[in-house]
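BUG: 3D viewer hangs when loading the predicted structure for this chain

Environment: internal workstation, default settings.
Expected: structure renders.
Actual: progress bar stalls at 90%.

Input used:
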Amino acid sequence: MSESTGGPGRRVRGLVYGAYEQRLAAELDPERLPRHVGVMLDGNRRWARARGTATAAGHRAGADNIAPFLGWCDELGIEVVTLWMLSTDNLQRPAEELEPLLAIIEDVVRGLASCGRWRIHIVGALGLLPASTREVLVEAAARTEAVQGLVVNIAVSYGGRREISDAVASLLREWDAAGRSLAEAADSMTPEAIGRHLYTRGQPDPDLVIRTSGEQRLGGFLLWQSEKSEYYFCEAYWPDFRRVDFLRALRSYVGRERRFGR
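C-alpha cells produced before the viewer hung:
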C-alpha cells in the first residue's frame, strides 16, 4: 500500500493504539472488573447508512465484531456476557430487513457454538421467532451446554417487560400446579420468587451495561436485572467498537464507587 493510501499512517496509528491499549489494560484492577457485562449492540443500520450500503451489510459488520469482543472478555476473565441482538420491537420491522437479519443471527450463533469456547444461553421469547431460527438457537445452547468457560447470553426476541411478564406467568403456573390459591400466590409474590423465573436465573446480575452508537436510553434491556448496574454509553457504532473502547468502558467502571442503592 502506498503512502498516498494511508499505509504508513495506518501502521503508525495501529502502534499508537496498541501502546495505549496496553496502558489501559495495565491500569485495570482485576479484582474490580465486572463479572457480567451486558451490551446493547446498537448502530448497525446507521453504520450502513453512513457508508451508503445496504442495512444487511451493517448487520453483517456488527456480527463480525462479536467473536473478537468475546475474545477480549475471555482475556480479562469476564464470566458472563449478554448480547442484545434483536428486541421484540425489532420483530415488527419489514420482512425484507428482518429475514436477512435473522439469517445473520443464525450464522453468528452457529459460529459461536462451533468454536467450542463459549457456553451459549438463549434469552428471549423464542415462541415469537420463526421455527427455523428457534431451532438454530436451541441447538446451539444444547451443543455448548457442557462447555466450561464464558457464558454468552444471546438476547433474541428479547424485551425487558416481556421477560418480567413471562417470569410472573411461569411462577403462577407453577403455583397453580401445586394447588395454591390466588390469595396464597399473592402473599408469596416476592422479587426473589420472580427472579427465579427470569431468563437469566442462576446468573449474577450485570455489573456493567454498555450501549454503543451514542444513544443514552435503557430501552428495556435486562430491565429487572440492571437495577443496580453501572451504565456506559459509547459514541461508536457497534461495528466500529474496538478493544480500546471496551477498555475505556472498563476503566470508567473500575473507577466508580458502587453503592448498590445504599
